[in-house]
Amino acid sequence: MTTALAMVAALLLDAVLGEPRRFHPLVGFGRFAAALEARLHADARVAGVAAWCIAVLVPVALLCLLRAALPAAAVFFVDVLVAYLALGRRSLGEHARPVACALRGGDIDRARIAVGRMVSRDTQALDETRVAVAATESVLENGHDAVFGAMFWFAVLGAPGALLFRLANTLDAMWGYRTPRYERFGWAAARADDALGYLPARLTALTYAAVGHAARAMRCWRTQAPTWDSPNAGPVMTAGAGALGVRLGGAAPYHGRWEERPDLGEGDPPGAGTIVRALGLVDRGVVAWLVVMFLGGAAAHA
C-alpha cells in the first residue's frame, strides 16, 4: 500500500510540476555518461560493460545505501522524489500536443519542428500523415519507456528499481546503436535495456489492449510484433496501434535515406486526433495500473 501511495504522490508531482526546468537529473546523468564514454570508450564489449556498471549500478547502490540510513518516513519521501523524476507522463503530453495542434491548424512546418523534439528521424521529409505517425509511435513507445516501465520497476524494487530502469533506458538511447562506434561498446547498454524492459513492455501492450480495442490489439501484437526489430517496442507499438485502430509503421527517413519498416496496426492512417487519443490510452493505462497496485497492496495487508 505504501508503494501505491508513493506512486500516486509521484504522479501528482509530475502532473503539477512537470519535469524540472532548471536542471533535470537525467540531463546531468547524460552529461556524466558522455564524459564516461569519452574516457572509457573502446571497440570492445568489456569496455561497454564496465562503463554501464559505473554509470548505472553505482548510483543505484548509493541510493540503496541512502535509503538504508534513513528512517521510514524519510525513505517514503525519497521514494516519491525518485519516482517523480523517473516518470515522464506530463512531459509526454507537453511534447505531443503541440504536434497535434499544429496539424489541426494546417501548419506543417511547425508540426515538423514539434515532432522533431520527439523522434530522431528526418522530420523535414515528413508529410502530415507521417508526422502523425511519428508522434503517435513516440507516444506509444514512451508510454512504456517513460511511464509504465518506471512504474513496474518501482512496484517491484521500489525507488532503486525505478532508478535502475530509467538510467539503463537513458544509456540505451545514448549507446545502444548498431554503428561502428557503438556496435561493441554499446552492446551492454542495449542488452540491459532489452532485459529490463521485457516484462514491462508486455504489460504495457496488455494495458493498451485492456483500455483500447482489445481483440484488435492482441491480434496485431500476435501477428506483427515479430516483424519489428526491437523485441520490446514491437509488442508495445503493435498493441497500441491495434488498440487505437490506426495504421502506423511504414517507411521513415533516417540520416538522409528512407528505411522500410513493417506496418503496425490496422485501420486508417493517423491524424492530429490520433495523437491525442494515444495520450488518452496512456492516461487510462496509468489509472488501471494504480487500481491494480492498490488492490495488490490491500490484498497483501488483508
TrEMBL record:
NCBIfam families: cobal_cbiB. This is Cobalamin biosynthesis protein CobD. GO terms for cellular component: plasma membrane. It is found in: Cell membrane. The chain crosses the membrane at residues 42-62, 146-168. The gene is cobD. InterPro entries: Cobalamin_biosynth_CobD/CbiB. Belongs to the CobD/CbiB family. Keywords: Cell membrane, Cobalamin biosynthesis, Membrane, Transmembrane, Transmembrane helix. Converts cobyric acid to cobinamide by the addition of aminopropanol on the F carboxylic group. Its main location: membrane. GO terms for biological process: cobalamin biosynthetic process. GO terms for molecular function: ABC-type vitamin B12 transporter activity; threonine-phosphate decarboxylase activity. It comes from the Bacteria. Pathway: Cofactor biosynthesis; adenosylcobalamin biosynthesis. The keyword Transmembrane applies. It is a multi-pass membrane protein.
